Amino acid sequence: MELGLSLDGSSKPFSFLEKTPKLSSNDHLGFCMGLGRSQEKRDSLEAERRGNGGDLKRVSSDPHLQLHLRLPWLFDNLHETGLSKGRGRGLDVNRLPMVALAGEATVAHSSPNSAVSSFQMDFWFRNGNSRGNRGMDSETERVSSRASDDDEDDNGSSRKKLRLSKEQSAFLEESFKEHSNLNPKQKLALANQLNLRPRQVEVWFQNRRARTKLKQTEVDCEYLKRCCETLTEENRRLHKEVQELRALKTCQPFYMQLPATTLTMCPSCKRVTTTSATDAKIGI
DNA sequence: GCAGTGGAGTGATTTACGTCA
DNA sequence: CTTGACGTAAATCACTCCACT
Fold first, then answer.
1. N or C: which end of chain A has fewer CB within 10 A?
2. Does A161 or A76 have the greater pLDDT score?
3. A54 touches strand C (CB under 7 A)
4. Which pLDDT value is given to residue A234?
5. pLDDT bucket at A272, cuts 50 / 70 / 90
6. Given CA atoms A186, A192, A195, A200 in this order, what sign does their dihedral have?
7. From the CA of A154, how many Å to the C1' of C15?
8. Rounded to an integer, what distance in angstroms lies between the CA atom of residue A69 and that of residue A66?
9. Which of residues 188-207 of A touch strand B (CB under 7 A)?
């Protein structure tokens, strides 16, 4: 059994279900939720993207979110669908022992717990920020210059987490409110404005989109959960009502079920005849 | 206080996929 | 039709911060 619910009230809310593979019989009681944007919303989003300069070549190919759950609300089913399955990954330098990073002496010396990230140093330096006037040794300067390189390291050791400053985050946040997708021009402008690499801006927006979507999904799931509970309760109530009506029907005397009859007199022969209400209605 | 720990937040990377020229 | 470039979503990792014990 599949139940489709739409949150947006679009006229064709479950078109995506046509493409959804049928749940196998092993899926027990399946619950399929479709969280979709209405066409209008999608159009506006597309228009917004076009308005961003028209450089974007396509819109998201994933206008809907589909969740297949086994009642009652077993979210852990997501794990079974492969969402949490890891893929084969390439070499991760962060998993290498420190010895292997000997060539990255400048980075390795930088304390990972340092409150002053290499990026922030870079930001201060480039901005001429007064905070950057703290006494920094030559090593932090080396880190700074390294972080300011626009190109990624070829040896893949650039997976160094750099925390953005509050100002940068706030600015990115504001930009995100205006448009959640950036065209290359906007990306470059933002990067220049914030003294970040374009790639950093790009990644920030990617993460922001993903996490916004995740949050929205959680909210939607909660809403659907409540909807389902309400509907279940309503269903239970209606079933009970049907049972009561059936019970009432079997208890009623036979005559109560007969259609009402009326006595009529034929105007010509003056004979009294009985006519059922239905007969009278159809003019017999 | 202080160290250890678990969880949340977040920047970065990898992979897969769709679109377009 | 095929192919490569490009952009994005999804999944994941790694690091940081913070509350709690």
1. C
2. A161
3. no
4. 96
5. low
6. positive
7. 21
8. 10
9. 199-200, 203-204, 206-207
Domain that holds residue A132: 93-158
pLDDT score at A240: 96
- What is chain A's mean pLDDT, rounded? 54
Give the type of residue at A231.
L
Tens digits of per-residue pLDDT, A195-239? Answer: 888 888 988 999 888 888 888 888 888 888 889 999 999 999 999
Instruction: Tell me how many domains chain A contains.
Output: 3
Give the CA dihedral A116, A121, A127, A131, nearest 10 degrees. 40
**Number of residues in chain A:** 284
> Do both A106 and A133 map to the same domain?
yes
The whole-angstrom separation of Cα A242 and Cα A208 is 50
Question: What tokens appear for A40 in the block?
Answer: 């209008």
Residues A83 and A100 both lie in one domain:
no
Residues A84, A149, single domain; the answer is no
Same domain, A78 and A103: no
Question: Which residues in chain A, range 200-239, keep a C-beta under 7 Å from any nucleic strand C atom?
Answer: 202, 206-207, 209-210, 213
Q: What is the DSSP string of A11-78?
A: SSTTGGGGGSPPPPGGG-SEEEEEEE--HHHHHHHHHHHHHTTS------S--EEEEEEETTTBTTHH
**Sign of the CA dihedral with A204 first, then A206, A207, and A208 last:** positive
How does pLDDT run across A120-145, given as a tens digit for each residue? 333 333 333 333 333 233 333 333 33
